[in-house]
Write a structure and sequence with these properties.
Length: 226
Amino acid sequence: MVNIGNDWDDLLSGEWKRRYYIDLREFLKYEYQNFRVHPQMGDIFNALSLTSYKDTRAVILGQDPYHEPGQAHGLCFSVKRGVKPPPSLQNIYKELENDLGQLIPIHGDLTGWSKSGVLLLNTVLTVREGFANSHKGKGWEYLTDRVIELLNQKQTSVAFILWGANARAKTAFITNPIHKILTAAHPSPLSAHNGFFGCRHFSKTNDFLRSTGQKEIEWGAISRGS
């Protein structure tokens, strides 16, 4: 039913036959036929397509896609090139600059992080235009919780970067002691000054990966070609 194009296909093959996903699929058919829904159908699984299970060394967990036209393309906090970076992403860039001295890109496309081993996963993968959280509770959470459970089973260490209360709630699925959990306030302008700024999660992630003998994340990859 779904073709992701890498090792996630085998790992998640059983999910497409489960009742929750069959119901979710019918719900999405109705939504896409009757409303404007983001991201485009072909972009829904971009996070998994761009970052295979094997290659995942860090996870940034978002809530649901941006709900305004032209923004969402299947990666949490990321927007398509040509779209102004939203406030939360602007704050992420500020922390990246303060932490690692990275130049702030002029675009909001985080695909470079995905290709460097960062799974940019929302807990809900679709949204109706103009209505944040409109697809919450429709079944996506079962799938994305399974993704986290599978990553928890990895024999190589993963850094889980959890910003905000919704993301921190997923710590219940991260029980393997070889992994690293990094938590902070959400980068939203409403909360960034309450613990997001100064969290240094980018350098801490690389410190952790280096300590486990793994390649660091190329956080500067998004600045190329900007």
